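Entry for adenosine-5'-triphosphate complex. Fields follow.
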Amino acid sequence: MDLKQDSSESLEELKMVEAIKRGYFSTFFAQLKNMLIRNLTLLRRYYFSTIAQTIVSPIVFLVLMFALQKGSNSVYGKSILNPTTYPLGPLDICRGVTRSSPCINLMYYPKSEDTDSIMQLFANQNLERSGLSPSSDQAIKFEGEFDLQIDTPPNKMYGIVSAPEQNFIYNYALNNPNTTAFGITFDIDKANDIYKYQLWFNSTVQRNDTAAFNIRVLSLLRGVDEAIIGHSGNSKADIDVVLKDWPTIPPRSLADLVITSVGPMFLFSTQMVIFINLILMIVTEKEKKLRESMQLAGLKPEVYWLSWYLAYSLLAFICVLVTQAMGYALNLKVFRHTNFFAMFLTLFLFNLTMLAAGCMVSAIVSSSQAAVLTGVYIFIVGLILMGGIFTTISFTFIWWEKSTTPVIKYILMAIPPFNFGYIYICMSLLSAGSLDPITYTYTPGPSFKWANLYKPLPSNYIQTFNTDGETPSIPSPSYMLNVMLINGLVYLVITWYMDNVVPNHYGASKPLYFFLSPKYWRSIFGSSKSPDEFSIQTWINNLAAARPPFSGEDPDVTAERKAVLDTNAPYAVRIVDLNKVFKSGVFSRKKFTAVDSTCLGLQEGEILALLGQNGAGKSTTMNILSGVMNKTAGDALFYGVPLNDQRSIRSMLGICPQHDILFDELNAVEHVKLYAGLKGLPQTEIDRLLDEGLYAVRLLTVRNKPVRGYSGGMKRRLSVLIATIGNPKIAFFDEPTTGMDPVNRRHVWRYLERFKRGRVIILTSHSMEEADVLSDRVAVMAHGKIRALGSSIRLKNRFGVGYRFSMIASNLTTTGYVKDTIAQLFPQAQLEDDSAGALIYHFDQEHSEIVPEFISWLEQNQDETASEDTPTISRGGSDSGTVAQAGETRGNKGQYLISTWGMSQTSLEEVFLKLVREAQEEQKLLSDKKEKN
Ligand SMILES: Nc1ncnc2c1ncn2[C@@H]1O[C@H](COP(=O)(O)OP(=O)(O)OP(=O)(O)O)[C@@H](O)[C@H]1O
C-alpha cells in the first residue's frame, strides 16, 4: 500500500476521532445547528403549510373575529335618537304556567278594613286606568276572600284576594309555583299614617314578567301607593315598600338550554371526523398515485368520486342513526321532541353537503399534509363560526333583521354549518324549550313536527336584538334545507371543475375552459372519432412540425424518423416528434428538454427496450405515452387512436410504473380482482388470472397476504401482473425487474415473452441482459434524444468495440515470443494487457474478417494438455457473448505457445457506455459553446 496515502488517511481518521471527542456543549451546538438548518429547509420546502401556519392562520381567525364584531356592532353600534317611551299603565292580568292557564293576580294579608279599602281603591283605579268595563275578563277585580286551600292550584283567574293567615302567601306560592303574580303583606300604623308593605314578586315565573325591574312591578307599586294615599287622605303619609322575591322550587322539567346553544357546534364536530377522513383518503390516494393507476386501468373519474362519496355517505348514514339513537338514549329533548325523520333528514343532508365540500377540498389539495391542514382549518373556522353565531340564540336570527346588511346573510348561507345550525336551533327552540336571556324566562317547547319544517318559527320563539320591535321575517327550516342541498350541488360542480384543471402529480391538467370544448363531452359520452374516420395522413400532415434530422443523428434513427411518417408502414404504434420541456423551477424561466423529438414506430408482437442513463428521459416518454403527463409537442398514434383520446387509449393500455403503486392494505388477490373489475373482465378470466397469473409471477403462495408485507421483488412482480390484466394491446413496463433476484427475474422474462404475442411492449431497463434477452429492438436514449436504434446484434455490430482475446502463454519464457509472433502475423491486433504471462488482445470492429484466422492460429498453438487444468480467461463483461473457448480437441498442434485462451464479443453494456460517453462529450461541447456565446 502507498505509505503516503496511508499516513494521510490516518491523519483524517485522527481528525475525525478528535472531532468526535469534542465536549458535550460543542457537540450539542454543532448538532443543533445542523438540525436547525434541516428543519428550516424542510419548512421552506413545505412552503404551503408554513404559510398556512404563520400567515393564513392569524389572518383567517382575525378576519373572522372582526366580522363577528362587525355583525354585533351593526346592532349595538346604532344610535337611538328616538328612544321608545314606556308609559306606566295599569297592571295587566296575570298569566299562569302557560299563557292561558289560571292564576291569581294579587294576594294580600292581613285582611282588615284598611287593607280591604286600599285594595278596593287599587282595583277601581286600575280598572279606570285600563279603560276596561268591570265585566271584562281582563279586568282585575277586588274579590276579598280566597276560597282555595293551600295545596289547591287556581282553577280560574282570581283578581285581588286576601290570604287567611300570615304565611299563606309564601306557602301558596311555594306549593303552586308560577300561579300567583303578586303578593302584599301590609303593616299599617293608621294613627301615625305609617303604611309599610312588602311586595312579593316572582322573578322566575314563566311569562309573568314580574322581575324587579319590570314595568308591571312599577305599575303595581304606583297603583298601591295611590290607593294608600287615597285611603289615608294624607298625601304626606309615610309609605315604606320592601320588594321580595317569591320562593322558588325547580320546575319539574328544565329546558335543555346547553344542548340548544352548543348543539350545532357538537353535531358539527361529530360530522367533521368523517369529513377530514374523506379528504385524507382521497388526497393520500392522489399523492401515492393510486388513483392515477386505477384511471390508467380504465377507471372513470366520475366513478372514482362517486365511489368515495357513496362509501362515506354510508358512514354518514350510520353516524346520523347513532347520533339520533344516543340522543334518545340520553333523553335529550331536542331529539325526543323533534320528528325523527325531520331530524334525520337535516343531519343526513348536512353530512352529505359536508362530504361534497370534502370532495371539493380533495380536488384542490395534492398532498396529505395539506389535506389534514385544510381539514383542521375548516373544522376550527366552522367551530368558531358556530360558537359565535349559535351560542347566543339572538345571533341565529339577527341576519334577517332589517338593520343587518343582507349580503352577510348570503355569505353565511353559502356555508353548510350555518344552514344546519339555523335548522337545529329552530328544532331545539320548539322541542327543548328556551330561556329568555334577559328575563331568564323559560319557555317550554311544544315539539318540532314534520309540518314545522315548512313553517318559519312562531314569532314568540324568535329572539332578536332589534330595537324597533319588529319581528324579522325568517325563513322556514325547509328553505334552509334547500339552501343546503344547493350548497352540496355547487360543491360537487366545483369538485368536477377543479379535478380537471388542477394539475396532477405529473403536472398534467386540462385548460380552464375545458368544459366549453365539444371534444371533452364527446370523450365522456364515448362518441370520439372511430379509427375508420381517422386519417393517419391528416394526422401526419398536422404534425408538419416534425423536425428534420439532427445534425450528426444516427442513420438508423433518421431512417425511423422517416418510416413513422410513411402511412403504409404497418405500425401499431407511431410516435412522432414527441417533445417534453420542463421549466427548471416554479418561478424560473429556464427550460429543460427531457424528451427531444422522439420518433418511433412499433409493430405488433414487438418489444422495444428503452435504455438510457438516469435522467435520460425514459420515464418521461413512458408517462407521456401513458397519458399521465402532458406532452409539449408531437403526438403518438395507438392503433389509429391519437394520444389525446385518453379514454379510448386507456382501454388498450397496460402499465407497470417505475415505482410500485399498490394498496398496502390489499393482498394480491384483491389487487387482481380490483384491476380486473375496472377492466370489466368476466369472472372466468379473473379466475384464470388468480390461478395462472399469480403462479406465473410466483405470487401464488403469498396471494392472501397484504401487500405491506411483500418484499420489493414481490411488489414488482405484482405490478407486472397488474399491467398485463385485461389483455392490453399496448403495454409499458418501466424497469419491470428492478429489485428482483435472478431466478424470479427469469420467471418474469418468460411471462413477458409469452405475453408479447400480438401486442406492442415498450420497456425501460438498466439491465443490459434484460434488454438483450427480451427485446426485439433497443433504443438508447441520452439527454432526451434517441442515440441509437436497432436489434441488439445490430447495435453490437455497429457500435461494438470489436473482439477481445485473452490468453495465457504456456510458460513465462514464451510470452515474449508469443507477443512478437502475433505482432508479426496479425498487426491489427492491439495488445491491451500483459501481466504475468496473461495477454489480452483486441481487434477493432473493422478488422473482424481477420478474427477467424486468428482463432485458427490460436487453436494451432495451444498446448492441449495444459488447458485441462488451466482456467479459461474470459474478459469483456458478464453478459459477453463468448463464441469460442479454449480446451477443445484440435488437430495439428504447433509449437504450443499458449496454454489456454478465450474470446468475447463486445457486450451491449459496452455499446451503451460508448454511446452515453459520446452523448456526454457532445453535450459538454454544446454547453461550452453556449457559455462562450
Ligand atoms: N415533473 C418534472 N419536472 C421537472 N423535471 C422533471 C420532471 N420529471 C422528470 N424531470 C426531469 O426530466 C429528466 C428525465 O427524467 P426521467 O424520469 O424521464 O428519466 P429516466 O430516464 O426515466 O431516469 P431513471 O432511469 O433514473 O428513471 C430528468 O432530468 C428529470 O429531472
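NOTE: Residues 104-245 form one domain.
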